[in-house]
Amino acid sequence: MKYLIDHKQKLIHKTAYAGDACRFNETPLEEREVSHSKDDIDTLIKTKGYMVCENCYHSNSFIVK
Ligand SMILES: [Zn+2]
């Protein structure tokens, strides 16, 4: 799984499911980071107050639009 970290909104997205509703397009490129590490994500959530994105993080399969 590949994650997109939005450092401006302090949100964690799953790139496979992220879409327009995630609104990370409003975040400058330099404040976005891609990570493959679930450990990094967990650390951000537990120690830095990051939240998971409700629009995409809980998806386990492709959404039919
Ligand atoms: Zn999202």
Automatic annotation (TrEMBL):
Top-rank taxon: Bacteria
The protein, known as: Uncharacterized protein
Taxonomic source organism: Salibacterium qingdaonense
